[in-house]
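A quick word before the example. In earlier lectures we treated sequence and structure as two separate objects. From today on, think of them as two lines of the same record. Here is FAD-binding domain-containing protein written that way.
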Amino acid sequence: MAATDRKPILISGAGVASLLLGRALLSASIPFRIFEKDQSITFRAQGYRLRLSSEGLDAIEAVLGPDGFPEFWDRCGKTGGVGFSAIDAITGEKFPDDPAATPDKEKKDVEAAGSASKIIRETLTSRGGKVLTLGVQVGISRGDMRQVFLKGCESFIDWGHQVVGYESTASGVRAIFADGSKSIEGEMLIGGEGLYSRVAEQLSGGKLKVYDTGARGIHGQAPTTAFKALGEGVWRAVDDSRPNGRVFIITNVRPGDMDDPNVEFGWTMGAQPGVIRPPNEDYTITGVVAADIAKSITKEWHPRLRPLFEQMIENEAAFWKITCSNPTGVPEWENDPRVTVIGDAAHSMTPAGGIGANTAVRDSALLGRLLAENGGYGDGVTAAYEKEMRVYASEAVKTSYGLAKGQFGVEINENTPTIRRGVRTA
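And the structure line, produced from the sequence above:
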């Protein structure tokens, strides 16, 4: 990074959106510091695999450029074959591709989704010299994505620093940490620390709410051999046989990794409210406890699917809550020229449709471009970013919620509880 007398741009959190923004600032020779509460990038489980849309790939390519994007592209898995398929978890039979022929509980899902079909079943533009056509899925694990985005930013990250707020100064802003200490003065502060963002809460005066839908999930990993009976494709297995509600999993089986003993595939289980019950709703309990619940739920599933759970790496299992921002869209708040938010801090989404990460990287690309064009802080940068972000992010939240109503049976209303930002317990 070129030497400069300008104060750095401060970024809270070292998730996908924050690291990609760091890469954008690095390319523009704009000084920055990232503050992350974890002790390292591998400090905790990285979550499930992310499916990328054309918009998401375009945003990443715009930031990484012709020198950096090929490395990212090579780390992505490309699943062709049958593409996206839904099967009955009990019988193992594939549901028809025609949305009108899917189970009744799925019809509302399809109808409410609107533009989601564009995200789930789209024709991707030319990548790596090839045109990826309908049904091809491009995905990457969250951990791999963070590792690629981290490259070049390592010396600009302060690990073990949890941002719990900020204070404005005469000519900048300082982040406030959990231990009461404060950061160096920065030109701006970008809140990118996820669902529990204290920066988002302070900036919006509480308008940026995240709702706890009551739906729950479990993420797990298993050796690639456990997936051979499924074969290549992006699979969604649905179990409507349980009296207390629907359960389903999504997994991505990539043929190129099928016989590699050093590779594990992941699966993500979701369930309607009341089906998955972590002990005392304690989401810090992971490993065997989560694995045993997943095995119990799936013990009657078809033999094609049971190896995913019987052979799972138990210490990799983890619970997760299914949350969502206000489905009416990203609210407006009084603009602060020196503070804004990106990613889940600005717009939390359900996992339905795989839209959240794609929207987060669009934030990074947009804000990074505006900052690069201005050479750093400028009076109109956050206002311009927030105006454009609200349009595409509001549409994405509505789509994600519409899908989740069908898949998870959730409903957000005036009685739906909100999570407490800054608190990572139940």
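Notice the following. Residues 381-408 form the longest helix (28 residues). We will return to this example when we discuss secondary structure assignment.
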